[in-house]
């Protein structure tokens, strides 16, 4: 993260995962809304507006430093302060929780995953991720809307679930039919309208011809999708493969790239574009076309 403590922790949102079983590791995960909050406007569950001090833990800040015997003070749903115990002033009347022998760290978030298609299988997926220390998963465009209510459920021992619902691409016979298959600007805007009505966390698009097998979304199509999503308060993340598509998407206002560039090395122009739009998120999901 490259951030400093305690200043970094001030005013950050807090969410503790304490039910996750871990082999030989006793970890309490803390959400710091950095990546996923930027992408999806991640909503923190309501909590009592009391001050709680979590004391005695080993605190991993995220910038390479570790603070032993740390105190992390939470005011409602906000991390008010964190640091060495001697440096954190806990107000009178605060609830104190002893975390001696435990480790507190920023929550691990999987920002690109395709979960199973059925409700029971999704819950199993989320529990498996929590078991290995992942506390939230963003499912990227292959979910039907009838499973999205899982997002609001509290499932013991499971990672939190966020979803793009049905993503948007051109017709891709032989591949999943969960996404919207669009062939026009109007269809793209309509797809966003429906996605927004289902309160998706982010809009997912695919811009990829799959080695020449399919037509890919044109700049006019994905530009309209991005525009419509932004009008409705939604951010857009894009599957892509080619360098030139990355440039076109950034010009069109995309908020995140769901993969790195994979057809060639990035060039100075793209680097300059990222500098001009420093809040564009890159998920370096590299192995295959996805």
């Amino acid at each position: 993260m490259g951030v400093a403590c305690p200043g970094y922790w001030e005013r950050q949102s807090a969410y503790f995962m304490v039910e996750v079983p871990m082999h030989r590791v006793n970890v309490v995960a803390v959400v710091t809304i950095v990546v996923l909050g930027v992408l999806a406007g991640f909503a923190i569950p309501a909590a009592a507006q009391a001050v709680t001090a979590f004391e005695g833990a080993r605190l991993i800040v995220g910038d390479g430093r570790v603070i032993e015997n740390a105190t992390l003070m939470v005011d409602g749903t906000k991390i008010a302060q964190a640091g060495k115990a001697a440096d954190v002033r806990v107000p009178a009347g605060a609830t104190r929780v002893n975390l001696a022998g435990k480790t507190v760290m920023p929550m691990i978030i999987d920002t690109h995953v395709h979960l199973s298609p059925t409700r029971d299988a999704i819950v199993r997926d989320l529990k498996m991720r929590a078991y290995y220390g992942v506390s939230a998963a963003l499912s990227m465009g292959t979910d039907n809307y009838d499973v999205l209510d899982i997002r609001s459920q509290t499932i013991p021992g499971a990672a939190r679930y966020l979803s793009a619902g049905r993503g948007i691409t051109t017709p891709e016979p032989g591949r999943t039919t969960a996404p919207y298959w669009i062939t026009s600007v109007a269809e793209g805007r309509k797809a966003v309208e429906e996605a927004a009505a289902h309160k998706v966390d982010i809009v997912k698009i695919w811009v990829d011809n799959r080695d020449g097998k399919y037509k890919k979304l044109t700049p006019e199509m994905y530009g309209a999708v991005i525009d419509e999503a932004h009008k409705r308060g939604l951010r857009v993340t894009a599957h892509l493969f080619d360098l030139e598509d990355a440039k076109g998407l950034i010009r069109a206002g995309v908020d995140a790239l769901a993969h790195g560039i994979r057809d060639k090395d990035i060039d100075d122009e793209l680097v300059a574009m990222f500098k001009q739009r420093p809040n564009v998120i890159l998920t370096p999901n590299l192995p295959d076309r996805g």
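The first helix runs from residue 35 to 40. Residues 1-27, 29-48 have pLDDT under 50 and may be disordered.
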